[in-house]
């Protein structure tokens, strides 16, 4: 089910089985319902369950069903807990929570808009009224309130959000044009002020429009599950060379950085040979000073151009970024360098 197409394909596959191999046996069940690949069956007696499971598993080699029987007249299906009443055998419904669930919801102190927290309470309250039997609603609402309090929600905020909304009398009006706008979330107070100002301005200029304003948040701590690229595997980047004496050089490369470094530090340099350097102020400096260098200790990437841009745009940005880096860092070994990209900056 990792793919977005997973539930749809599972639904199609099960529908095909139900209309072919399983059709005859399904017609004999007292009750049969399915949601995607979860099936709820009421059989005539418990002895038939194993035979039913074997028949289901024999329909297709690519799918295998598992069986969960009721325990103490109780069984769960999706997020619904079903229990048989002793008086008449009818089913009583309540919310099912997995044993591994720790009660954690969006904390009230999380950096998310206030309406997200309010809508969380409303959606969970609606689920209780929509799923539970009348005699279990009050107990489930108490449980929900306790969980919300444990997640830092004020009691007054919970009570207000859990109140059912009164339905306003409908009026026949022309449908409004929905305008969607997503902005960066910078706190509840600024979000509400911005929302009110935008809505008032829109009503004055375009009464037939209705603004739907949403806010997105960025994670406070970013995770990086992808391994960091080796230094030489970078390309389309600005790199810096720092000698042991402090002299620096800034350059750019569209190719792999390892290729460019090998031009600055050719193999004969490591062998102790001394030749005339070709177009490399780094190599010229090392030969004149007698200093040593290696790629891992003396080279670093200071900027990389994103790969989702057109190549001509990336090249232009690379040239500009190199000129700006040289202008800001003023590296000693780049004094004689002729820039491909000239800068016309206010601070020049």
UniProtKB/TrEMBL annotation:
It comes from the Eukaryota. CDD domains: RT_like. Residues 1-106 form the Reverse transcriptase domain. InterPro entries: HTH_animal (IPR058912), RT_dom (IPR000477). It holds the Pfam family HTH_animal. This is Reverse transcriptase domain-containing protein. The lineage of its organism: Eukaryota, Metazoa, Spiralia, Lophotrochozoa, Platyhelminthes.
């Amino acid at each position: 089910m990792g793919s977005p197409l997973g539930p749809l394909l599972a639904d199609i596959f099960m529908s095909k089985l139900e209309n072919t191999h399983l059709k005859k046996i399904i017609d004999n069940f007292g009750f049969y319902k399915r949601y995607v690949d979860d099936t709820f069956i009421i059989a005539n007696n418990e002895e038939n369950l194993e035979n039913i499971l074997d028949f289901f598993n024999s329909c297709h080699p690519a799918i295998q069903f598992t069986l969960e029987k009721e325990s103490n007249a109780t069984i769960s299906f999706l997020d619904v807990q079903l229990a048989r009443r002793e008086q008449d055998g009818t089913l009583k419904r309540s919310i099912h929570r997995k044993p591994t669930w720790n009660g954690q919801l969006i904390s009230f102190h999380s950096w998310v808009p206030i309406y997200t927290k309010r809508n969380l309470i409303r959606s969970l309250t609606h689920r209780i009224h929509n799923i539970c039997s009348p005699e279990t609603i009050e107990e489930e609402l108490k449980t929900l309130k306790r969980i919300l309090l444990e997640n830092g929600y004020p009691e007054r905020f919970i009570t207000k959000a859990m109140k059912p909304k009164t339905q306003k009398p409908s009026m026949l009006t022309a449908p409004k044009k929905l305008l969607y706008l997503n902005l960066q979330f910078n706190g509840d107070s600024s979000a509400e002020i911005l929302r009110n100002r935008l809505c008032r301005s829109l009503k004055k200029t375009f009464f037939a429009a209705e603004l739907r304003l949403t806010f997105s948040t960025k994670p406070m701590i970013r995770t990086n599950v992808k391994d960091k690229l080796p230094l030489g595997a970078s390309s389309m980047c600005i790199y810096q060379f720092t000698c042991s004496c402090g002299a620096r050089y800034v350059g750019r490369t569209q190719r792999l950085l390892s290729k460019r470094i090998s031009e600055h530090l050719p193999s004969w340099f490591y062998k102790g040979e001394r030749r005339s350097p070709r177009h490399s102020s780094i190599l010229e400096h090392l030969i004149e000073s007698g200093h040593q260098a290696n790629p891992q200790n003396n080279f670093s990437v200071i900027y990389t151009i994103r790969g989702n841009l057109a190549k001509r745009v990336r090249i232009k940005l690379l040239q500009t970024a190199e000129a700006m880096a040289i202008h800001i860092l003023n590296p000693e070994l780049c004094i004689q360098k002729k820039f491909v990209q000239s800068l016309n900056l206010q601070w020049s």
